[in-house]
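As a warm-up, study this chain.
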Amino acid sequence: MDHPFADLIGLTLDQQGSGSSTFSLSVDDRHLNPHGVVHGAVLYAMADTGMGAALYPTLDAGYACATIDISISYFRPVAQGQLLCETVLDNKGRTIAHLTARITQNDKLVAQANGNFAIMSTPPERR
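Now compare it with the structure written out below.
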């Protein structure tokens, strides 16, 4: 799937399976906030994108998903290096799915997010 926003921030899809995904990001100056650490929105975007990528392969043809809510906790600042976001599908119902994303650097937890996604049929003109 083409993903212009992921391209914009330099997010790389490393693995996508049915109910899982892994993304990586090499931190550079465009990711930093005025304090010189990765902006929280970059980490949020990693989690949100990872969740969508993990859920999409589980959907039937003619269905899509959309973020309902994501709760994220930030544990340590990052100023440089490589970030890894690993996402798993925890539960998928008929209309709602719950996922967890863990963002790490060198096996240390940087942030963790839990999210709920709506599952809906797409209009015929968008299929």
